[in-house]
Design brief:
Layout: E1 3-9, H1 15-25, E2 32-39, E3 42-49, H2 52-59, E4 68-74, E5 89-90, E6 96-104, H3 107-116, H4 129-139, H5 144-152, E7 157-165, E8 171-176, E9 181-184, E10 188-192, E11 204-207, E12 212-216, E13 221-226, E14 232-235, E15 240-241, H6 257-263, H7 265-292, E16 297-301, H8 303-320, E17 325-328, H9 332-335, E18 345-350, H10 356-367, E19 371-376, H11 382-386, E20 389-392, H12 405-425, H13 429-438, H14 442-465, E21 469-474, H15 479-493, E22 496-501, E23 519-522, H16 527-542, E24 547-552, E25 561-566, H17 576-593
Parallel strand pairs: 16-17, 16-18, 18-19, 19-20, 21-22, 21-23, 23-24, 24-25
Antiparallel strand pairs: 1-4, 1-10, 2-3, 2-4, 5-6, 6-7, 7-8, 8-12, 9-10, 9-11, 11-15, 12-13, 13-14
The structure holds 6-O-phosphono-alpha-D-glucopyranose.
Amino acid sequence: MCGIVGIALEMGEAAPILVEGLKRLEYRGYDSAGVAIVGERGVSVVKGVGTVDDLERRFGVSALSGGTGIGHTRWATHGGVTDVNAHPHTDCSDRVAVVHNGVIDNFAELRRALEGRGHVLRSDTDTEVIPHLVEEGLSSGLAPIQALARAVSMLEGSYAIAAVVSGRREIVVARRGSPLVLGIGEGGNMCASDVAAMLHFTNRYIPLEDGEVAEITPERVRIWTVGPRGEMTPVEREPREVDWTASMADKGPYDHFMLKEIYEQPSAIERTLSQAEVYSDRAVDLLLSTIDSGGRVVFAAAGTSYHASLVGKYLLARLAGIQAESYVASEFEDWAIPHLREGDLVFAISQSGETADVLIATRAARKLGARVLAMVNVPGSTLAREADEVLYMGAGPEVGVAATKTYTSQVAMLTHLTARLALRLGRGGNRAGEIADWLPEIPKIVEARLEEMDRLSKRYVGEVVSHHSVFFLGRGVNLATSLEGALKLKEISYIHAEGFPGGEYKHGPLALISRDTPAVAILPREERLRRLMVGNIMEVRARGAKVIVVKADGGEAPAEMEFPAAPEGLPEELTPIPFIVPLQLLAYRAAVALGRDPDKPRNLAKSVTVI
Ligand code: G6P
């Protein structure tokens, strides 16, 4: 995964801006960090195992002097987590420093060849071949951008690369398969893995496309495509603007980004619903033309976004009478591609728009003649650029690795979309109209109960953290809520958690239930489902487990603890949004109680750009 940032300034110091950018990129990986600054006496590199804060403490990075620099935050792929393997990597003479995100598949051959020509490589990483290839280009008289273009023409695999050279004010960058955007500022220019890492400097950006290189000087940015032997053809591309601000990506008074992002949900959902007004007509047109021509709707998504797709699938069937399919993106090629046809629509949901499995799925689908409707949060992301139609969620930057506000925004957007589609199709009767009427109330409903849900989650968290396993039971649309609630808890607290359909419980999981396995049950509103869930709760309690229930006011269930998360009368289809909020808070409080960092769960990264 890894995060990359670079800046070239006319005047002033690069280091503090790099450090700020790296902090915003830590969601991409945080096992090591490093920077390289071009100063009066060549390139200074500081790097090591740990977070950006650790780097700052160890080396006082912000005090390094020089107007051009690059930085990196690492999620290890090749080579263990050691100081030597941290980026930037340098060439034999320490004149070239490189940061890289991605995987170089042919690095072993390149390394052997470089060593055969006398180069000395010091780390176990695939990245280190790059500065040595650039070094060779420079030695043969090429300018840094030409040397990088020639180097990347020898690379196989995926990469976003940024390099600096001693005595030069520019950064040279390249991209294939890993994200990289160029930032156009006043008095300098930047590059980064995403726009959020540049907001403290500029909100104007140019996305770099696969197969391109760029030269970023303090005064301007130039882009070229690279041919098979490193030949360069200039490209003109206008900057775009993102309406995110730096303060949106700040922690503010909160202890963690995750808590801030949970509390931001009312305003994020409100923004999503106004975005939906702008974008949904075209998305609805695309869905209608697919259905009219006999095509199918097939969701592809990963992690939390996959759980949102399950809500979408449910709502499409329930409100619009459309039988959609939903696949985890990493399984899409094996389960969906074999029967995908021209005219089908792949509905890809991805917060980052960079998840490798999602991009692989949509690219394979397009080759077969399917169209792609994408729902993304990050502007300028790869998925957004490659899709036929885009729904921007508008949730604002999300920094915590565990998705919270972007999940509820995805579900809000899907609810808006399916209700509108049902109304256009004349299906769903009063139900679709009722849901469309209730939807604008959702931000207020969440807002009104947030503090109370947090208070209750602090009260119930003891029950969760004193056990090793927690089971989440859902039915109907809130099966997705049970899966998402379990994912939140396991990913940030490291307590084993599983979500199940309530009825499936007796087919295996019940064997694990004892007084040591508390359960969280999401109580449906519909009477038939509620009774079934009450039966499941009784079965669990009969084995000594305590139960926490998430419910709407007036919903009755025999449980030790309850979260009244929604008002009586809220249609079942709308409950996934308010019902997930207490489970996000419970997971957050559990992580904090156990001394884990909820923003940086071990082994995970927010944007998974490798397969
Ligand atoms: C990672 C993140 C999850 C996220 C998933 C999909 O696993 O840790 O929070 O849900 O990727 O990410 P996407 O950006 O495609 O929604």
